[in-house]
Amino acid sequence: MYASREDIGYDFGDDSKVGSKPIKPNRNIDGGWAWMIVLSSFLVHILIMGSQMALGILNMEWLEEFNQSRGLTAWVSSLSMGITLIVGPFIGLFISMCGCRKTAIIGGILNALGWILSAYASNVHYLFLTFGVTAGVGSGMVYLPAVVMVGQYFQKRRALAQGLSTTGTGFGAFLMTALLKYLCTEFGWRNAMFIQGAISLNLCVCGALMRPLFPKDVVSEKHVVRSNSEDNQAKALSHSAETIKSNGVLSEEPESKEAATNEEVLDSVQHIEIGGKSRSGKSMYGLRILKTVSQLTVTVRKGFAIWYSSYFGAASLFTNRVFVAFIIWALFAYSSFVIPFIHLPEIVKQYNLSSQNNIFPLTSIIAIVHIFGKVILGIISDLPCISTWNVFLMANFTLVTCILTLPLMQTYVTLAVVCALIGFSSGYFSLMPVVTEDLVGTKHLANAYGIIICANGISALLGPPFAGWIYDMTHKYDFSFYISGLLYMVGIIFLLIQPCIQKKQPREKSTEEAQV
């Protein structure tokens, strides 16, 4: 196990190590607008992750409406959850090109559209496309920027900030469960989804709050993280000027980028003696299009180059063996948390506990305790004498134990106790961005965390349908929890093995050098 964050620092050639102390930090780092970013991320978690945790309500409505098997119907929820996370690496490309703010706003519109179109579903397969894919992609375009922005704005209190922002998942699961239950009872599930789509438009407001950092805001010990938008704009303008200048149209050394460009375009139109005012207007329009296209081309090329180098270049994230073990863990972990949320309402119905569950739903118990788990684990991890990695591992051990014992509990009280432990231990989700940043550094956080949530997405995509398929075969959910728990344990073992190997290698090298 790691004793400190420095132990899991990883060099990518930019000399950015974990534990590097910021030099002259801007007031927006760990304060100021940073707390608005936390608020924005908190609301995103309520509207996206919280509503996905409440899909068990809609799942029961879909089973009754469409008369399909549990395995097939569960694909709707799992597609939405899975695609939200699976698109992470590709959303990293959007962030590299457009920035977090624009990506999140576009995602908010797409998510709302998915909810609204799902209100008109005629069968389960229609929901696969509208709710699973459309709403899922939109959710992913908002979720990743929300996590990345918190990591960029915080240095000293990063774990606490991530913990506070991700408590939105717990609040959202509690609020959205009650809201969707009320809406389905009063208006029916179709109108409930339409109303939820209107509520989801608030994601655009959350995206607008994600103000990008300027170069002076992030100053590390070895390098300065520059604003992509400013750099792209400067290169695009210079590239555009050179392109048009090669045609003999522009004069030399323009004083102002905007004014000079307009004047030069007007001069060029005067020199073009093709005839007619309409032809001159077309020439101006063509030159403006040329400038816009050249700017867009440079932006896309630079964004793609950054994205590609992170995955396949010399500084590839996959050269970090501990990070690869982290990915393997993520492939098995998330389904163990998602399966109870999707299938607990059915389990309660099977055990004839519906009357007690209606008073205080078990999913709400998970959601409420989940809030405290994230905050408390975040505070503990920020203590100087405590290793974030060790807290992360202990929470994982607790969660996998609860998943394996849940099928043995058949009374409401015992189920409530296990659900409370699941809620608290799953608070480690707030530590995932912190652990990821410790492994790869701030510069690679967007792409690295995109890979991690992509692996989580695959787990969420396959977990609930697998549990439904096992139920269709055995008419019990027991084996679903046992199998998912064992796979989860395999992932934890990978996390334990790889750090030992990583720490052992330098010692072996030093022994060989001593012998020589």
Automatic annotation (TrEMBL):
<feature type="transmembrane region" description="Helical">
    <location>
        <begin position="75"/>
        <end position="96"/>
    </location>
</feature>
<feature type="transmembrane region" description="Helical">
    <location>
        <begin position="160"/>
        <end position="180"/>
    </location>
</feature>
<keyword id="KW-0812">Transmembrane</keyword>
<keyword id="KW-1133">Transmembrane helix</keyword>
<feature type="transmembrane region" description="Helical">
    <location>
        <begin position="127"/>
        <end position="148"/>
    </location>
</feature>
<feature type="transmembrane region" description="Helical">
    <location>
        <begin position="359"/>
        <end position="377"/>
    </location>
</feature>
<feature type="transmembrane region" description="Helical">
    <location>
        <begin position="33"/>
        <end position="55"/>
    </location>
</feature>
<feature type="transmembrane region" description="Helical">
    <location>
        <begin position="322"/>
        <end position="344"/>
    </location>
</feature>
<feature type="transmembrane region" description="Helical">
    <location>
        <begin position="389"/>
        <end position="409"/>
    </location>
</feature>
<feature type="transmembrane region" description="Helical">
    <location>
        <begin position="415"/>
        <end position="436"/>
    </location>
</feature>
<dbReference type="InterPro" id="IPR020846">
    <property type="entry name" value="MFS_dom"/>
</dbReference>
<dbReference type="Pfam" id="PF07690">
    <property type="entry name" value="MFS_1"/>
</dbReference>
<dbReference type="GO" id="GO:0008028">
    <property type="term" value="F:monocarboxylic acid transmembrane transporter activity"/>
</dbReference>
<feature type="transmembrane region" description="Helical">
    <location>
        <begin position="448"/>
        <end position="467"/>
    </location>
</feature>
<dbReference type="InterPro" id="IPR011701">
    <property type="entry name" value="MFS"/>
</dbReference>
<dbReference type="InterPro" id="IPR036259">
    <property type="entry name" value="MFS_trans_sf"/>
</dbReference>
<protein>
    <submittedName>
        <fullName>MOT14 protein</fullName>
    </submittedName>
</protein>
<dbReference type="InterPro" id="IPR050327">
    <property type="entry name" value="Proton-linked_MCT"/>
</dbReference>
<feature type="transmembrane region" description="Helical">
    <location>
        <begin position="192"/>
        <end position="214"/>
    </location>
</feature>
<feature type="domain" description="Major facilitator superfamily (MFS) profile">
    <location>
        <begin position="37"/>
        <end position="503"/>
    </location>
</feature>
<keyword id="KW-0472">Membrane</keyword>
<feature type="transmembrane region" description="Helical">
    <location>
        <begin position="103"/>
        <end position="121"/>
    </location>
</feature>
<feature type="transmembrane region" description="Helical">
    <location>
        <begin position="479"/>
        <end position="497"/>
    </location>
</feature>
<dbReference type="GO" id="GO:0016020">
    <property type="term" value="C:membrane"/>
</dbReference>
